[in-house]
Automatic annotation (TrEMBL), chain A:
It comes from the Eukaryota. This is Amidase domain-containing protein. Keywords: ATP-binding, Ligase, Mitochondrion, Nucleotide-binding, Protein biosynthesis. It comes from Pterocles gutturalis. GO terms for molecular function: ATP binding; glutaminyl-tRNA synthase (glutamine-hydrolyzing) activity. One of its GO terms (cellular component) is mitochondrion. Residues 2-426 form the Amidase domain. GO terms for biological process: glutaminyl-tRNAGln biosynthesis via transamidation; mitochondrial translation.
TrEMBL record, chain B:
SUPFAM superfamilies: Glu-tRNAGln amidotransferase C subunit (SSF141000). This is GATC amidotransferase. It comes from Pterocles gutturalis. Coiled coil: none annotated. GO terms for cellular component: glutamyl-tRNA(Gln) amidotransferase complex; mitochondrion. NCBIfam families: gatC (TIGR00135). GO terms for biological process: glutaminyl-tRNAGln biosynthesis via transamidation; mitochondrial translation; regulation of translational fidelity.
Length: 463, 108
């Protein structure tokens, strides 16, 4: 036989907001339950053309709205690290009767399913999507590499849109080299997506960087955000020292509008969502209500039945910001602030900085029981704060797992690069990955709750 | 400033999505309060940004038909259809007014 391509035989998973021909695509919503895509998203097609084997569609927050992968209609995603020896030995059960079941932590989101799939060795690589950090956030919590490519590099055709001006397909893998390989198969102009750039893209292999003395790393001070755990702060500082000691130039920089990024995102996202969700009316695909009195009432009933609170909330907020009396003050204002945020990055990169180094999340993964105490919007606001600005400016960014926290859970650091300079970004990320030697997850067999209690636990350690 | 019932009603009609309960309305209030932080930023002389790719030329291809003829596949996903038509309930009937609609807002 002939090898189909560079990914021949490689098992992959795809987030369930990518269209996959002949396979149900639900976006974890009742609105699309039973919807069988008539076509493959371009990125899915590209992977299949290279010989990749699609193992399944992964769970997410409903319509990719959320930062925990907890609000989908199939239920929350559990972080595989909840079942790792590293986490278990650090967690103290509060009582004998307390299940370890109630202790499990979230994956982060919204591409939690994809991150969990890669982290638990069920596939080699997975596709996620990234609008506000949805690939990098779960990557950090699940200890995997999460790449957000430059906006316009990879086709969004077939990716069910959330925010057309910020969405990108994301790549989740266990190491930076794998991410580069997958990127090589996916990047490039797609005539079916007019927001992809026409520049010729050449897949690349990452060099093994040994000399970082010509590198200039920027540490944006505003990313020392309120709520950043002291653990992550110290890890960030250690990483900066790592580069400094290796000869790189490490300087503190400023991105003054960082803290408005979340507010700006909130307005622009809900506005675009209000528009993008308008297509779900039950007429051509997806859920349709039995209400038959009039078109409008059928649409209203369908949408009432199909969308969860989070989605409905964003649609209503978006419509509010787009009202004639609010358009200038909210939507246009947010677009102006967006330019200021993008310009902050232009200024910093223009001053000679090659790569920015920041934390990816404020803390390690929290237990599900704790996460659900706050509502989705509050959580998203808190969790996206470090990742969102890259989407605002369309820049490439990557999460690299850095170390385990006090609780035995993964913590990652983020590198942000210049537009379309993925090769440089990934080269630096790979160098960093080699220095930190992030530990492999030691998965233990999940204890079964029947009478035959396992006396000893088998552990699968892939060393 | 609390959002008036008239505006809430208007939003329900525009979005064709309901607030469902007091929590839904409260969520909108908080969302607006949150968004108001934008007004702290001085944006005098700043142009709104539509796309990060604004400096590039949009790709235009030749106006040739390259795909299509997939009526059967597309109709497969529709619940109600007749031959090659999607079937909709009668149109041009406006959503009932607030007083006549089944909505949480009625109580306000």
């Amino acid at each position: 036989g002939r090898q189909l391509g560079v990914l021949d035989g490689i098992p992959i998973a795809v987030k369930d907001n990518f269209n996959t021909a002949g396979i149900e695509t639900t976006c974890a919503s009742n609105m699309l339950k039973g919807y069988i895509s008539p076509y493959n998203a371009t990125v899915v097609q590209k992977l299949l053309d290279q010989g990749a084997v699609l193992l399944g569609k992964t769970n997410l927050d409903e319509f990719a709205m959320g930062s925990g992968s907890t609000d989908g209609v199939f239920g929350p995603v559990r972080n595989p690290w909840s079942y790792s020896r590293q986490y278990k030995k650090k967690s103290v059960p509060k009582s004998h009767s307390e299940d370890e079941e109630s202790n499990w932590v979230i994956t982060g989101g919204s591409s939690g399913g994809s991150a969990a799939a890669v982290s638990s060795f069920t596939c080699f690589a997975a596709l996620g999507s990234d609008t506000g950090g949805s690939t990098r956030n779960p990557a950090a919590h699940c200890g995997v590499v999460g790449l957000k490519p430059t906006y316009g590099l990879i086709s969004r055709h077939g990716l069910i849109p959330l925010v057309n001006s910020m969405d990108v397909p994301g790549i989740l893998t266990r190491c930076v080299d794998d991410a580069a390989v997958v990127l090589g198969s996916l990047a490039g102009h797609d005539p079916k997506d007019s927001t992809t750039i026409q520049d010729n893209f050449k897949p690349f292999e990452l060099p093994n960087l040994t000399d970082v003395s010509k590198l200039s790393i920027g540490i944006p001070k505003e990313y020392h955000a309120p709520g950043l755990s002291s653990e992550i702060l110290s890890l960030w500082s250690k990483a900066a020292d790592l580069f400094k000691n290796a000869g790189a130039k490490v300087t503190e920089v400023s991105l003054p509008h960082t803290r408005y990024s979340i507010v700006c995102y909130h307005v622009l996202c809900t506005a675009e969502v209000a528009s993008n969700m308008a297509r779900f009316d039950g007429l051509e695909y997806g859920h349709r209500s039995d209400m038959n009195k009039s078109t409008e009432s059928m649409y209203a009933a369908t949408r009432r039945e199909g969308f969860n609170d989070v989605v409905r909330g964003r649609i209503l907020s978006g419509n509010y910001f787009l009202l004639k009396q609010n358009y200038e003050n909210y939507f246009i204002k947010a677009q102006k602030v967006r330019r200021l945020i993008a310009n902050d990055f232009v200024k910093v990169f223009g001053s000679g900085v090659d790569i920015l180094l920041t934390p990816t999340t404020l803390s390690d993964a929290v237990p599900y029981m704790e996460f659900i105490k706050e509502d989705n919007r509050t959580r998203s606001t808190q969790d996206d704060i470090l990742t969102q600005a890259a989407n605002m400016a369309g820049l490439p960014a990557i999460n690299v797992p850095a170390a385990l926290s006090e609780r035995g859970l993964p913590v990652g650091l983020q590198f942000i690069g210049r537009s379309f300079q993925e090769k440089q970004l990934l080269t630096v990320a790979k160098w960093f990955e080699k220095q930190v030697k992030f530990p492999m997850i030691q998965l233990e067999e999940v204890k079964r709750h029947d009478h035959d209690v396992f006396q000893h636990q088998k552990s699968a350690s892939f060393s | 400033q609390r959002v008036t019932v008239e505006v809430l009603d208007h939003l329900e009609r525009l979005a064709l999505v309901d607030f469902r309960d007091a929590e839904g309305v409260q969520r909108l209030q908080e969302a607006i309060q949150f968004a108001d932080q934008l007004h702290e930023v001085n944006t005098d002389g700043v142009e709104p940004m539509d796309s990060v790719l604004e400096d590039r030329c949009l790709y235009l291809r030749e106006d040739d038909v390259t795909e299509g003829n997939c009526t059967k596949e597309l109709l497969k996903n529709a619940k109600e259809k007749v031959e090659e038509y999607f079937v909709a309930p009668p149109g041009n009937i406006p959503l009932p007014k607030l007083e006549e609609r089944e909505t949480f807002l009625q109580g306000s």
